[in-house]
């Protein structure tokens, strides 16, 4: 690609927000717990390993900034090394084993004559089983694109 095309494209590219050091550490800790949850199947093993992980983070809490940056970089490298090849997904979410297994039928299919009972559900559900709401932007009425590489609804 030529430099003019790259320069034009960079104007429209979104800039990632700059996180503070504390936010980066909190993000690393949360992501580490999620990866740990993929490896530790038993809850007691997870709790034991999570307490060890928390102790490692607490041991380096008040260190010098240059040392803290080195710990953060090493932590990200270690997280990349231990990332599970097939991470745990909630079963009914995109990428889960039960995703769209029994999707709810439309009301006009259930009641073709139009006599919908009063106790029938009045809400429409998204494929991730959340309630369709226009104001939240999660309104999957009609066809929905599910990205199975990131395992999310688009």
UniProtKB/TrEMBL annotation:
Domain Complex 1 LYR protein as annotated: residue spans: 23-81
| Topology term for the membrane | Peripheral membrane protein
UniProt entry keywords in alphabetical sequence: Acetylation, Electron transport, Membrane, Mitochondrion, Mitochondrion inner membrane, Phosphoprotein, Respiratory chain, Transport
Compartments (UniProt record): Mitochondrion inner membrane
Give the GO terms filed under biological process for this record: mitochondrial electron transport, NADH to ubiquinone
Q: Which domain of life is it from?
A: Eukaryota
Primary localization: mitochondrion
Question: Which InterPro entries does the UniProt entry name for this protein?
Answer: Complex1_LYR_dom, Complex1_LYR_NDUFB9_LYRM3, NDUFB9
Q: Name one GO cellular component term.
A: mitochondrial inner membrane
Described by its record, this protein's role is as follows: Accessory subunit of the mitochondrial membrane respiratory chain NADH dehydrogenase (Complex I), that is believed to be not involved in catalysis. Complex I functions in the transfer of electrons from NADH to the respiratory chain. The immediate electron acceptor for the enzyme is believed to be ubiquinone.
Subunit structure and binding partners: Mammalian complex I is composed of 45 different subunits.
Q: What family does this chain come from, according to its entry?
A: Belongs to the complex I LYR family.
Q: What is this protein called?
A: NADH dehydrogenase [ubiquinone] 1 beta subcomplex subunit 9
| Organism in which the protein naturally occurs | Leptocylindrus danicus
